[in-house]
Structures are given as structure tokens and as C-alpha cells.
Write a structure and sequence with these properties.
There is one protein chain. The chain is α+β, with helices and mostly antiparallel strands. It has 3 domains: about 180 residues, Lambda Exonuclease, Chain A; about 50 residues, no CATH class; about 60 residues, no CATH class. The chain contains 12 helices and 10 strands. The strands form 2 sheets. Strands 3, 4, 5, 6, 7, 8, 9 and 10 form an 8-stranded mixed β-sheet that branches. Strand 7 and strand 8 form a beta hairpin. The longest helix is centred in the C-terminal third of the chain and has 18 residues. The chain is extended and about 85 Å long. It starts with 20 loop residues before the first strand and ends with a helix.
Length: about 325
């Protein structure tokens, strides 16, 4: 095994939302980057996950009558305060725990930690008998892989994304991003491909200095999943098409940009013909003034002139000129 590129101190400052605080490439005050799993998650189909969570809450409440009673004591939804909603969320989490909804995740986290200790050449200590076969399967399946990086944090500055990849491995002289998955990979493989595609294009980041280090020639089109399904006593290596994953990352970027769009509405202005026929030219002129003030681009100003030139006055011309100056200054 190799430690060709040692991992930096993984202690990162985070904001109240858990986002990593990253020193910009040119230095300065740290800013929040989006976690990689969050960034790529915008394309994930969460229907089945939501249904599973609902089932877990229902089973947990059935197993814990005390939680059901506590839920019954809360006000109905229309009368709930923020504190009531927070309490209901807490009770739902307890119900999921009662249904052992997080048991698989707990086992998966433990297997991750044991695999990391093995790859670092550390003593594994006592392992529960039911999971010894999992660790032995991991050892056998990865024995020919050269571990180059282990649990390393990196950033993609263009996307403002940060995250930790499980491994960089070397196979026949070529480096690959590798990820350990202890659950099913059938339904989430699209998100996995996106996540590993981002990691393959990241730079290693040192939280103490903000220094970026290029990755060691990681393959841009293929990554490796080390599939270690918990409790199965088996492991396998699976190639993932991260070239396709990177295409989906660009789609995720567009989705996130669309969700942040503003100024999608503007005041309604009655047409000149209808206003004249109704004898409301003054109201139309006033509405036109409001529309000029609310315009967000020079194209909108031009459209207003073309549509309403029949009621356009010197006052509208002056207002449009002032708005044009404001928009031009803002764009500069």
C-alpha cells in the first residue's frame, strides 16, 4: 500500500447549515461551499425514499405508544407554531429510530471506519462475528488495489462544491476515484456517478492553509465503486461511467440556477386599445409608469415602448431614460 499523497488535516469549519467554509482561491474570508452530495442531489428521484420514511414513522409510532400520545398532544397543523413543528420533527425522528430505520446506516458507517483502518495498516481490534465476513470480503476484493489517498477532502471552485472522496486507487499505473458503498447501488447509481465525476475534477484542499493540490492524474471517464453490502459477507468492484455523470452535473447546475431565478413576474398593463375603449387612458398611463419602473432589462423597456407607444408621453420617455441609466450602471 502507498501513501503517495498524504491527506491533510480534515478539520473543517462549517456554517450553521453544515456547509464547509472554504478560503477562496485568491485568499480572503472563508465562504460556504455546497456539499457535493447536496449539489448532485437536485436530480435525485426521492419518491421511494419519501415513502420508505413514511413507513418507518408509521411502524415506529405503532411500536411506541408514548410517541403516539405525544403527537396527539400537539395542536393540529393549522395552529402549530415553529416550536410545535420542531417538536413534531423530533418525535418523527424518534419513531424512525424505534423502527430501526437508521440501523443499516450505523452498520455502514462502522464498516467504512474498519475498512479505512485496514487500508491505513492499523489494528482493527475486535469485530462482531456477524460482520467479520464483510471485512474479510473487503480485504480479498481490494488486495490488488494500491491505496493512494484515503478519506481526502477537496473542492471544485467553479461549482463552489466541497466533499470527501473515500479513496484514490491505482490500478496498472492509472489512478481512479473510488467510493465504498455498503447499501444498494441499484437505485442511486445516477447520483453516485455524478458525485464521483465531481470528485475526479476536484483539487485536494488543505483547510489550515487554503492550499489546493491537483489530483494525481485521476481518470476522468471511469471511477470505481467498492460495493460492500452490509451483512452479506461479499464485496465486488464496479466500474462507473463518470463521463455521463459529468454531463448530469451540468444539468444539475442548470436546475440549481433555475431554482434561484428571480423577477419572473411584472405588473400587468392593460393594452392601449382596451384602455381607450374603456375610457381609462389615465389608468393605463399610470400602470405603464409602474411597468417602466419595474423593468429589469433594456429588452423589457423596448417591449413596453412597442406595445404601448400610443399612450407613451414625455413623462414615460423621461422615466424610461432614467431606468435605462440605472440598469446600465447595475450591469457595469
Amino acid at each position: 500500500m502507498s501513501t503517495e499523497f498524504a491527506s491533510p488535516d480534515q478539520t473543517l469549519e462549517r456554517d450553521r447549515y453544515g456547509r464547509p467554509l472554504i478560503i477562496p482561491p485568491g485568499g480572503g474570508k472563508p465562504i460556504a461551499y455546497t456539499r457535493c452530495t447536496t449539489y448532485v442531489g437536485v436530480l435525485e428521484d426521492t419518491y421511494n425514499l419519501s415513502k420508505w420514511q413514511q413507513r418507518m414513522v408509521a411502524q415506529g409510532l405503532a411500536a411506541r405508544p408514548d410517541l403516539m400520545l405525544a403527537v396527539s398532544a400537539l395542536p393540529l397543523n393549522g395552529n402549530m407554531t415553529r416550536e410545535h413543528k420542531a417538536e413534531l420533527n423530533r418525535l418523527c425522528e424518534q419513531a424512525m429510530e424505534a423502527a430501526q430505520a437508521h440501523a443499516a446506516a450505523t452498520v455502514g458507517t462502522a464498516l467504512h471506519a474498519l475498512a479505512e483502518r485496514h487500508d491505513r495498516g492499523e489494528d482493527l481490534g475486535p469485530i462482531p462475528e456477524q460482520y467479520q465476513a464483510d471485512i474479510e470480503a473487503y480485504k480479498a476484493t481490494t488486495s490488488h488495489l494500491e491505496m493512494v489517498q484515503i478519506e481526502t477532502f477537496g473542492v471544485h471552485d467553479q461549482l463552489r462544491v466541497g466533499g470527501t472522496w473515500d479513496r484514490i486507487v491505482k490500478i496498472d499505473g492509472q489512478h481512479y476515484i473510488a467510493d465504498i458503498k455498503t447499501g444498494s447501488i441499484e437505485w442511486g447509481i445516477g447520483k453516485i456517478a455524478m458525485q464521483l465525476a465531481v470528485y475526479s475534477r476536484c483539487q485536494q484542499y488543505d483547510p489550515s492553509t487554503g492550499q489546493r493540490t491537483p489530483l494525481p492524474g485521476v481518470h476522468p471517464d471511469r471511477a470505481l465503486v467498492i460495493h460492500l453490502p452490509a451483512g452479506k459477507g461479499q464485496a465486488e468492484l464496479v466500474w462507473v461511467d463518470i463521463a455521463a455523470g459529468w454531463e448530469a452535473v451540468d444539468l444539475a447546475r442548470q436546475v440549481r440556477a433555475w431554482r434561484s431565478r428571480k423577477n419572473l413576474t411584472r405588473p400587468y398593463v392593460q393594452s392601449t386599445t382596451a384602455a381607450t375603449e374603456a375610457g381609462t387612458e389615465r389608468e393605463a398611463a399610470g400602470a405603464l409608469s409602474l411597468a417602466i419602473e419595474a423593468a429589469t432589462s433594456l429588452d423589457e423597456l423596448n417591449q413596453l415602448w412597442q406595445l404601448h407607444h400610443q399612450v407613451w408621453t414625455d413623462e414615460h420617455t423621461a422615466a424610461a431614460a432614467a431606468k435605462k441609466t440605472s440598469l446600465t450602471a447595475t450591469a457595469a
